[in-house]
Design a protein that fits this description.
Elements (H helix, E strand, L loop, with lengths): L1 H15 L5 E9 L2 E12 L2 E8 L3 E11 L2 E10 L2 E12 L2 E8 L8 E8 L2
Antiparallel strand pairs: 1-2, 1-8, 2-3, 3-4, 4-5, 5-6, 6-7, 7-8
């Protein structure tokens, strides 16, 4: 009985998780103008995985991904001019749109943060 209740709880939490699975296109304003990024999210309960691609940083694997209701977070490691950067993302999804903030982890703050707005395309 206890296992059944735990299973029902886990399934109900997954049902309330945001529907991030699929392909999303996002834009943000950077120092040199508008930036674009594609996110391909895979969802397993409250676990978020997948990959993201941009012309500036190339393809990166999503790690440490979590979904909590409409909120989500994850990290990527990207290479920029031979230096690996760990970027953290935190955001919220509403229907077929999301807003997410990215920031370099462990940086001195000079890299800044970026506000991304995305729309689901698949």
């Amino acid at each position: 009985m206890k296992r059944l209740l735990i299973s029902m709880f886990v399934l109900s939490m997954a049902a309330f998780a945001a529907d991030l699975a699929g392909t999303w296109k996002a834009t943000a304003e950077g120092p040199q103008g508008s930036m674009e990024r594609t996110f391909v999210f895979k969802v397993d309960g409250t676990k978020l995985t997948g990959e993201t691609t941009s012309s500036m940083l190339g393809k990166s694997t999503i790690a440490d991904g979590k979904i909590d209701g409409d909120n989500f977070s994850f990290t990527i490691t990207a290479s920029m001019q031979g230096t690996d950067l760990k970027l953290s993302y935190k955001g919220k999804v509403t229907g077929n749109e999301f807003k997410v903030t990215s920031q370099v982890e462990g940086g001195d703050g000079s890299q800044g943060s970026f506000e991304w707005t995305g729309k689901k395309v698949q």
